[in-house]
């Protein structure tokens, strides 16, 4: 079962929709990604680097203020939480976990050696499949222009 905060964050991140607007296939994909994310978070928080990591109250307040700032009023904020099956306590718990995971990852990354230009070029040349992707585009509408009725008929026929 996916918690409400994770469902909200992933639904917007993956599909640019609220969780209650997803179709069945999207809901299944969200569940798969959430399961994988939960496993990664659990593994990150189980590391020795996570032992001393504490999320400062100031960071929590800033994260919560960022979310609240997306709403015109405090009532709208609370109404949306209720609609999504969240309360302030659950939101705080989820935010604290998320910020803790991010802090642990930053702590681990800080100890990693810097990647040089030579390292990047070697990786690029030894892993061409990672960089050879077909071009993709997303269209919202197509504008077709024409000068006369004949061109208009041709343009319509293409559709």
Short recap of the structure:
By secondary structure, this protein is mainly alpha-helical. About 60% of the residues lie in helices and about 0% in strands. The two termini are about 45 Å apart.
> Level of helix content?
55-70%
Largest sheet: none
> Which stretches are poorly predicted, pLDDT < 50 over at least 5 residues?
none
Distance between the termini: 44 Å
Per DSSP, what share of the residues sits in E-state strands of 2 or more residues? under 5%
* DSSP E strands, number: 0
What is the residue-mean pLDDT, rounded to a whole number? 90
Structural class: mainly alpha
Query: What is the molecular shape?
Result: extended
Rg, nearest Å: 23 Å
- The number of distinct helices, counting runs of at least 4 residues, comes to 7
Question: Could you state the order of secondary-structure elements as H and E?
Answer: HHHHHHH
């Amino acid at each position: 079962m996916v918690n409400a905060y994770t469902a909200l964050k992933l639904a917007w991140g993956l599909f640019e929709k609220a969780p209650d607007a997803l179709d069945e296939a999207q809901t299944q994909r969200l569940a798969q990604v959430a399961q994988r994310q939960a496993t990664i978070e659990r593994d990150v928080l189980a590391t020795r680097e996570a032992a001393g990591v504490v999320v400062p109250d100031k960071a929590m307040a800033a994260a919560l203020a960022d979310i609240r700032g997306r709403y015109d009023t405090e009532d709208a904020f609370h109404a949306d939480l209720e609609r999504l099956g969240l309360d302030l306590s659950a939101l705080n718990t989820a935010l604290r976990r998320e910020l803790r995971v991010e802090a642990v990852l930053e702590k681990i990354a800080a100890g990693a050696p810097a990647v040089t230009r030579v390292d990047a070029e070697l990786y690029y040349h030894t892993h061409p499949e990672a960089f050879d992707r077909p071009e993709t585009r997303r269209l919202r509408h197509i504008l077709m222009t024409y000068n006369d009725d004949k061109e208009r008929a041709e343009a319509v026929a293409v559709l």
